Amino acid sequence: MIPPPDRAPTLIGSFQLATDGQVLNANETAAQWLGFARAEFINRPFHSLLGSGGQFFWQSQIVPMLRLKGCLEEVYLRMREKVGATIPVLGNVALISDAARSFIEFSFIRIPQRGHLEDELLRAKKMAEQASDAKTKFLGMMSHELRTPLQAISLFNQALLENAYGELTAEIKEAVQSSQDCATSVTALIDDILNYSRMEGGTVQVTTENLPAEAALERAEVSIRHRFQQAGLNCVRTPVESGLMACYDANRLQQILLNLINNALKFTPRGGSVTLSAHREQEAAAFEVTDTGCGIPPEQLQRVFEPFVQLSTTIESSDKPGVGLGLAICQELAVAMGGRIAVRSTVGVGSTFSVLLPLARQS
Question: Which stretches within the chain are classed as H helix?
Answer without folding.
Answer: 28-34, 52-57, 63-69, 112-141, 147-161, 170-200, 213-231, 250-266, 326-336
